[in-house]
Amino acid sequence: MSQQSPAEPAVVNSGAAPVPGPGSDGVDHKRRNNRVIRLLLAASFVVILNETIMSVALTELMDDLGITARAAQWLTTAFMLTMAVVIPITGFLLQRFNTRPVFTTAMSLFSAGTLIAAIAPGFEPLLLGRIVQATGTAIMMPLLMTTLMTLVAPAERGKTMGNVSIVISVAPAIGPTISGIILNALSWRWMFWLVLPIAVAMLIIGNRRVDNVTEPRPVPLDLFSVVLSAFGFGGLIYGLSLVGQGSGEAGETVSAMPMWISFGVGLVALSAFILRQLRLQRRDRALLDLRTFRSSTFAVTVGLMVISMAALFGTIILLPIYMQQVLGLEPFQIGLMLLPGGLLMGLLAPFVGRLYDRFGPTVLLVPGTMLVSVVLWFLSTLTENTSPFTLLAAHIVLSIGLALLFTPLFTAGLGAVKPELYSHGSAIIGTVQQVAGAVGTALFVTVMSIQSAALAADGSAGTVAVAGGVRAAFLAGAIISVFAVAAAFFVRKPADNQAADHEAPEHPATASQTPDSQSASPAESAGALADGR
Questions:
Q1: What is the pLDDT of residues 122-135, one digit of tens each?
Q2: What are phi and psi of 28, to 5 degrees?
Q3: What are the distances in angstroms from CA 261 to CA 237, 256, 351, 367?
Q4: Spatial distance between the Cα atoms of 281 and 44, rounded to a whole number of angstroms
Q5: b vs e for 444-476, b when ≥16 Cβ sit within 10 Å of the residue's Cβ?
Q6: DSSP 3-state assignment of 22?
Q7: How far apart, in Å, do the first and last CA atoms of the chain sit?
Q8: Which end of the chain offers a freer environment for a tag, N or C, measured as fewer CB atoms within 10 Å?
Q9: Is 12 helix (H, G, I), strand (E, B) or coil?
Q10: How far is CA 292 from CA 16, 62, 182, 475, in A?
Q11: pLDDT confidence band for 96 (50 / 70 / 90)
Q12: Identity of the highest mean pLDDT range in 76-90, 113-127, 277-291, 293-307
């Protein structure tokens, strides 16, 4: 191996955790790795925050841009659609390219989208800005999780993954709060102007300070899989976004045919996508390698993640509706009501990570799922006379339950797969988050709409009808949450012998390798994969 140039950053094999302290090349790998992770955490928090920041701004956008509620909803729907289409491709991107160019591309796209949205003269440019934003956001989350799994030793992953939970769960949870605070004093454009300098700063700092810490391989891109993935996940997300809109606006009846067509296209394309991945993964050419599901722990954690994210996003959508239409609260007040729970979730995440490292996932997941279930059952008893402070307490307890779930799920799930499948596991988890968020939103809104319409038809007052619909929606969520409690007992911490397979070699690869040596030949890559099985 040639002598490393001081200007070249070190890299670590994608399946290894780093050796702490200075290496033989004089580079303090632990300090470098911590710096990379901190930068990725900060950047990811900024980009993921924007997924839900529009939720309480739609009314102002309708008035300012002169658009309908259905058109305004596309600003959220298009974001989710883009995320669902791009995330499955990130498994390929993270294997094929180095850390820094992937980070730079993601933050450049996000910054460009934020600028487009901030100066948008009308609805169409604003929608374009949201789509470009979502493209960058979709890349960041798998990049963060894959890098973390590569750099952090198994015994310390829970603590570090606790910080990732802040990004994944707290950022979308406090998005409506931040939006409400901004809209109380400024126009909707400031939701983008305030984010833009932060995003650009992250881009500039990251472009200089994020070292290349993975070893790319010349993996091929199966374009047909990309097309199937786009139609499959995009069709499902779009179909779910149409659920609950059947009542239309102002009593207008809307055909359900587009929803069923979208579901049909999505299911057919997704089935074809799965079959193609099963065939391609035999030659290590899958866009999304489904061998991750051979781990029962990964499979169970994905199922639990679906329920948890559905509960989180469903609650994020439903509670503001209840607070505004039933309790008569203003957007700013709603934001303040949701803030304590979101902040508490963030404060607990690192502590939960340390508990995971010491005790494993079961002692966290079981009480966490129970708390979530109890709160959902309680929320199914809401009336038009429920005190806002009672609702605040319920949201805080729900946030504690979710805080106990996310860190163990991410850590145990990804820790249970082979190191060479980290990028695919991260992409699967990111895709599941988007689908689960859409499922939760569709389920809660649909049940609420149907029950509210039925009560209104029977002569109930508006607030009584909406409260009844909210009760029914949370009841559906509470019933589903019972399955999460049962599944929590089946999640196990990756075995010690499996963790040992993930430990770093005595001398990790460094950037002293030439570009040719950093990108292993197909034969070398195949041999490395064979050794890892």
A1: 899 999 999 999 99
A2: -80, 95
A3: 12, 9, 46, 41
A4: 29
A5: bbbbbbbbbeebbeeebeebbbbbbbbbbbbbb
A6: strand
A7: 27
A8: C
A9: coil
A10: 18, 44, 42, 33
A11: confident
A12: 113-127
Please give the share of the chain, as a percent, with pLDDT higher than 90: 18
DSSP states of 248-305: -STT----SHHHHHHHHHHHHHHHHHHHHHHHHGGGT--SS-GGGGGSHHHHHHHHHH
**What 3-state class would DSSP assign to 487?**
helix
Q: Which residues of 100-131 are buried (b: 16+ CB within 10 A; e: fewer)?
A: bebbebbbbbbbbbbbbbbebeebeebbebbb
Q: How much is the CA Rg of the chain, to the nearest whole Å?
A: 23
Residue 429 is predicted with a pLDDT of 85
Query: Which residue did the predictor score with more confidence, 158 or 327?
Result: 327
Question: Quick one: average pLDDT of 265-280?
Answer: 92
Separation of alpha carbons 13 and 510, rounded Å:
9
Phi first, then psi: give them for residue 115, nearest 5 degrees. -65, -45
User: What's at 56, amino acid-wise?
Assistant: V
Catalogue all structural domains in the chain, each as residue range(s) with its CATH number: 29-496 (1.20.1250.20)
Q: Cβ contacts of residue 13 below 8 Å, gap of 6+?
A: 215, 505, 508, 509
Rounded-to-integer distance, Cα 417 and Cα 305, Å: 16
pLDDT of residue 268: 95
Q: Which of 184, 135, 178, 510 is nearest to 343 (CA)?
A: 178
Residue 276 — very low, low, confident or very high, per pLDDT cuts 50/70/90? very high
> Is the pLDDT score of 413 beyond 80?
yes
Average pLDDT of the chain is 79
pLDDT digits (tens, 9 = 90+) for 17-58: 444 444 444 456 677 778 888 888 888 888 888 877 877 777
Q: How far lies 529's CA from each of 218, 388, 532, in Å?
A: 13, 55, 5
**Which DSSP string do the residues of 28-90 spell out, in sequence order?**
BHHHHHHHHHHHHHHHHHHHHHTTTTTTTTHHHHHHHHT--HHHHHHHHHHHHHHHHHHHHHH
User: Which tens digits make up the pLDDT trace of 177-236?
Assistant: 788 788 888 888 998 999 999 999 999 998 888 777 677 777 788 889 889 988 998 888
Rounded distance between C-alpha atoms, residue 373 and residue 457, angstroms: 31
Instruction: Return the closest-CA partner of residue 396 out of 341, 323, 320, 447.
Output: 341
Those residues whose C-beta lies under 8 Å from the C-beta of residue 262, and which sit 6 or more positions away, are 235, 236, 238, 239, 242
